[in-house]
Write a structure and sequence with these properties.
- It is a single chain.
- The chain is an alpha/beta fold.
- The chain has 19 helices and 16 strands.
- The strands form 4 sheets. Strands 4-5-15-10-11-14 form a 6-stranded mixed β-sheet, with helices on both faces.
- Helix 2 packs across helix 10, helix 3 crosses helix 4 and helix 5 runs parallel beside helix 6.
- The two termini are 33 Å apart.
- The relative contact order is 0.14.
């Protein structure tokens, strides 16, 4: 398996060659040169693996298609270390629940930070340590987070050999629990930077640093954001796992299943797109956004309109307060027939308030070939969904997952529809209390976390300031 850049100006490379780089040197994102294809026999085999050996074994089978330069025994061991109790609080790792009326919930928040980001980050931590040890090398990670990516990355990499993490967060834009999770980590290789701006400012700084070839070389820079292909590869696994669990005994008929995915950065649902391109029987991929509806607007109108920081609203589902979806380039690459020159033109020249409009025939292809639909939810929508699900099913979900439920009901496609969970409710206590009248229970492993001392430094939204900070600590 070789990987190419969406902008076409770098030589193809194998997985271990791109793992430590994140963003391609030409500013593009790495994608498989071609998608491996799976059929009914493969799904039947994987169903047996999942049932008899568990999620980690399934992950090793799926990821071997994308990571064929890692010996099979090594990859099996990496997956077993990444996906195991008690690191994950449920023995199935990703259980599913039938909510009735054709809706299912894919539980992705059983990891150490109670967010779906753990599904990729725990694997990424193992992969980084494995490859760095194999190369006798070191790596400095720079990342951006709107809430959950940062804590998941830091929990996965804290204390690991040969790696430092510099994580950028938007000042005042995360919940108290999210801040406490990140800023209370005391490991010497973890550095938290609160940036005076919104998530898109943090993400832009990460891209500027990655695009500076000299700085990247001198600092041995890597990435944990979903621009790193390994993140998406890990997420493909739970689409397959959820599909196998939902269809169960009907697997022989290969019935289609739809997924509704809360997303701001397009990473989570991009993994679903790749699973569909591999042959997983997915009918629809439903993009669920909050009031920052850049992606919903695109799939409704064909216009991708990037918004400035002043237009990025602060909402009660803060991890989706994003107006520039960094993984969106991967899907448009496929939509445009992998025309790298056109991708470089559309995305390489984009100014903060820029964007583009695609013609109607391409938008028809997005719906009919790729199965994309979209919807947006409001604060009242998510509060209502949290309240109704809790009253009717006794199930408590976070605001982002509630966005997914609201959009799945608005779009109303034939079931089954799996709504992918994003985090546990404990991270968003104020909105939960508004919905059901009391705060969510705190899992024992997080007791007292908001009372711990913080380690965080504040910086302006300036890439040079971040460069100076990093250079002084490397």
């Amino acid at each position: 398996m070789r990987y190419i850049s969406t902008r076409g100006q770098v030589q193809p490379g194998h997985f271990c060659e791109i793992l430590l780089t994140g963003l391609a040197a030409d500013g593009g994102l790495y994608m498989p040169e071609s998608y491996p294809q799976i059929g009914g026999q493969t799904l039947k085999k994987w169903a047996g693996v999942l049932e008899k050996e568990g999620y980690a074994a399934l992950a090793a089978n799926v990821l071997a298609l994308f990571m064929d330069d890692i010996p099979e025994d090594d990859l099996q061991a990496i997956c077993q270390r990444a996906y195991r109790p008690p690191k994950f609080s449920h023995p199935e790792i990703v259980p599913v629940s039938d909510l009735g009326e054709g809706l299912w919930l894919g539980h992705l928040s059983n990891g150490p930070t109670a967010a779906f980001k753990d599904m990729a980050m725990q694997l990424l931590g193992e992969l980084f340590e494995y490859e760095l040890e194999r190369r006798k090398a070191a790596l400095n990670i720079v990342g951006a987070t709107s809430g959950d990516t940062g804590s998941a990355a830091e929990y996965a990499l804290a204390g690991r050999k040969n790696v430092r993490v510099f994580m950028l967060t938007p000042q005042g834009r995360m919940t108290p629990f999210q801040r406490a999770q990140m800023f209370s980590i005391s490991a010497d290789n973890i550095f938290n930077l609160a940036i005076d701006g919104v998530f898109d400012d943090c993400q832009d700084i990460v891209k500027v640093l990655n695009a500076d070839a000299d700085f990247k070389r001198k600092t041995k820079l890597g990435a944990v954001n979903s621009i790193n292909w390994a993140r998406l590869a890990a997420q493909i696994v739970y689409y397959i796992s959820c599909y196998l669990k939902v269809v169960g005994a009907n697997l022989e008929e290969k019935p289609p299943v739809s997924f509704c995915v809360p997303t701001g950065n397009f990473g989570d649902i991009c993994a679903g797109h790749i699973a569909k391109m591999m042959g997983l029987p997915i009918r629809h991929l439903i993009v669920a956004t909050n009031e920052n509806n850049v992606l919903e607007e695109f799939f409704r109108t064909g216009t991708y309109r990037v918004r400035a920081a002043a237009e990025t609203l602060k909402t009660s589902s803060p991890s989706m307060d994003i107006s520039k979806a960094s993984n969106f380039e991967r899907f448009v690459f496929d939509l445009l027939g992998r025309n790298a020159a056109e991708i470089a033109r559309l995305f390489g020249q984009m100014v903060p308030e820029g964007g583009f409009t695609l013609p109607a025939d391409l938008m028809l292809r997005a719906r009919e070939k790729y199965g994309f639909l979209a919807g947006a939810a409001t604060h009242q929508d998510r509060v209502q969904q949290i309240r109704e699900l809790y009253q009717q099913n006794g199930v408590l979900v976070d605001p982002h997952t509630a966005d997914g439920l609201a959009v799945a009901k608005k779009v109303a496609v034939p079931g089954p529809v799996v709504v992918l969970e994003t985090a546990l409710p404990v991270k968003f206590a104020d909105t939960i209390a508004e919905a059901i009248g009391h705060v969510p229970p705190v899992p024992p492993r997080f007791a007292g976390i908001e009372d711990l001392p913080w380690r965080v430094d504040q910086l302006p939204a300036d890439s040079d300031a971040v460069k100076r900070y990093m250079s002084a600590r490397i």
